[in-house]
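ok so I'm stuck.
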Amino acid sequence: MTQHKQQDPSKTIVSRKSHSLGLKRRLKLHEVAIELSLLACGLLSIFTTIGIILVLGNESISFFTRDQWINSNRAILSDLDESASTFAVEPGNALDSIAAGSIIRVGQEVMEVRQFHDNQLMIDVFGTGGGFRRWCLAEAELAAAGLQRPQIINASRPIRRSEIDVCASAGIAPVEFRVGTDALAIVVSADNDFLTELKLDELRKIFSGAETWSDARADWPDEAIELVIPGQDSGTLDFFVEAVLAGDASAILATDPIMSENDNQLVGSITRNPLSIGFLGYAYYRNNRDDLRVIALDGIKPAAETVEDGSYALARPLFIYSDAGIMRDHPQAASFISYYLDKVDDLIVDVGYFPALKAEQTRNAWSRLTGAGEMAVVDPADVFGELRLAGSSTVLPLTQRIADAFVAAGYLPRLTVKRGVRGENTITPHRAGVALEYNDQPTIVEFFSSTSWIPAIGEFGILPLINATLMTSTIAMLVALPLGLGAAIYLSEYASERVRKTLKPLLEILAGIPTVVYGYFALTFMTPLLRAVFGADVVNIYNTGSAGIVVGILIIPLVSSMSEDALYAVPNALREASYGLGATKLETVIKVVVPAALSGILAAFIVATSRAIGETMIVAIAAGAGPNLSFSPFDSAETMTGHIARISGGDLSYDSIDYNSIFAIGLTLFVMTFVLNALSRVIITRFREAY
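replied:
not stuck anymore, here's the structure
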């Protein structure tokens, strides 16, 4: 018998495959073209993304590092030749950006600041008493209130013993300088047709209880008197109370008079009412003679002769005060007082006051205090340092006139610079009036901490834009998340297949409406609705609330569609198991289906948030134009995307500060959305359920 060897079937199959299935791919031209096109699209997408990131990064780096020249609103005051290294500029507000080591530009010449004297003379009006109180605050009190001690006090009365004691506790020893004499003017409106003179007892009666003019004199009108007097911190009121009311201010205050520390406001109140009467410094009457009429007192009017011979009863001395320590620590204060005492007699009459009778004694007091012997002649061009004065409104016109002369004579901000720091050949002459520019480069800390965004003037804080963006996005998500998730649950779990196939496309139609239409819907419907509910005085026409609500409506389809897909993908076996354990449909949805689809739902929420942050047209139309750090949804504010749309659509110069700022904002926006997308990937990975 012939024996046949059993063959392994598997080897037969393998052998057969190896010989009969020798397949080779036959290249077809259209398939190669499709593959190459898809590869090109993928590469183009990658390189486009990389290109966008590089452009954003490069322009943002330029924003933080380039020379950003900002007009200081100061101009050089005289011609500047090639050899000059010190020059004066126009006075103005304090400019902290100019300091030793900073870079400035005049014309096209770049300079390095070696020294900057921001000479400024500031005069505050608090009244005499208020000025003494500020002057004599302890250092700790000044620091706690963020205040600086005045160096010189204007006073329309001598300092009191009680005020001297308070000053002593702060280490201040007040020194008095008599600068002139004032004749306190009793004035009425020029329209007053019955009052030309008063007796002292009539004046006392008017200011201590008379209700009508006829109460003071029978033949005057039976009309109510309106008293207009300086405020309780005023030395003028103190002097009047002492001279006319025997030191008792209770009667005059009981009449409920119009009061102000500012004599110009008193002038306005008296001018407007022919039945009013008041008192103020003679200079204020003189400067408003067309609107006021001065009243003779016991037949005598204030004038140089009546003040000098003492016949006018309401003449009073005017002072300035300082302290020996202050004058030593702040030599500019000593220099200004010296200049003041030297010029006051020449200018005081033009101001409307009268020269002091003992001016020589005052000059000698200055010499004793400073230890300088004879009072020096001061050249204001040689004075450096800030001057701070405060106090009496009455003395203000005189001090202001002296201050104006001091500035005109050369007390100006001065710069000492190194010329031509970008090359010696760049040193060129400059004409007077050329604007001084300073180089202000933003820092990362300033960019994310400052609360003002105006790059054109050196304000680089993006917080207002970020805040408005987050506010509109938060409002949008508060609208979109519950509504979108509710719609998704209904479509996935409750709607029939026919209803689901009908409603889902209809819902997604919302995503096809142009966002500009949504923007005008927010402006013309949602904003009027909010104003009707909360009040037109509460809700601005442009506000983040209406913009956020409509952005929420815009992204409802995105939330509902992605969430519904995640819910629909949950296996029916989980639902059936839940029903088998006796759970209701609602319990199954909340406790089984939603947790099972959590990764997809969270991903939908994060993608929708990114969409809300990146929305442009709605916020550009409805939220407002102009950065504004406000946490009220009813206020106008500008988002990052709205700001980019607004300024890029205007007259924006290429490579300007504003131009570079667009890319810095864009990079910030990119980082925010990138972080959200990365977070979405992490959440999906963390909560994904495999079935």
